[in-house]
Specification:
Layout: H1 7-68, H2 76-84, H3 92-122, H4 125-140, H5 164-179, H6 189-205, H7 212-225, H8 229-242, H9 250-260, H10 265-278, H11 283-297, H12 304-312
Helix pairs in contact: 3-4, 5-6, 6-7, 7-8, 8-9, 9-10, 10-11
Amino acid sequence: MIAEPAVFGFDGGWRFLLLTRWDKMLSSQCVYIVRHCKIERSKIMLRMILAWMVVVLVVAGCSEEAKDGSRFHVTLSSEAEAMKEGFAVPAASEVDFVEKMAACRNSYMASMSSLVDYYASTGDSMKLRWARRELDSLTNMIKYRYLAPGEIGRTGVLAMNSIGVADKLFAEAKQLYVEAGGLVIIVDEDKLRDALNKFNDLITLYPSSDKVDECAYYTGRIYEHFRDYKIAVRCYQRAFQWSETTPNPARFRAAKIFDRHLHMRSQALTLYQMSVKTETLNKVNKEYAERRIKQLAAPKKVSAEQEASEKVN
């Protein structure tokens, strides 16, 4: 008898062959799909990288354009005004009145002192007592400065001469300023006032010293600390007027006060522009100045109501 082939042997063999071929087909197809997907994914990644590169280049180009754009260019007229006269400075009439008053005050003091000496020499005890009492009252009474030395512009004054006495006075004032915490955080306002007096004395007594521009800057810092913003901004302006190459960022400090405290934005814009152009600023201050220039130079948006109001008026 011829035995029938086993079901498993016959059917299982064909099933095995079919499955094996199907597996191979599926495997080859999967390999193709995987490879294709990898290629497509690589293409997508490449496109994304190229797109990001384009975006970065565009942004960088815009950034460079912004920093080199016309908004960063100070006009000659505004720069000339800042360098010659300054912004928000005392009127000539005020300066004239204050200087005359100071001269009269000094003359009065000198006259009273001479009168005391005269009555002392003549032996008139009653009038000597009167004169001394008046002189004491005059000496002890509160006397106001009205204008700080750094506020008053002096035509033709340039910080160019090395004067030994002035250099010593500056060193003393700077030491007091440092001890008061002026370089970081103010810790001693009495020493700060002492430093202020010495800086002001140097400006008054030695106007041609090569330290007057730095004195003007430091007096500006001290007045700013005491929130005397108008005086501070004038002192900062004198610093770069008396020396265009002054080592301190006087233009930047003045711009910031005009911007934040006095709300004189056009003047602030001019000084920010001059600062970026001329001064060596640290990274934080430079970025701040550039950002404010961009904001202040941007055209103001006018609402429809404002336009209608302007047309009616």
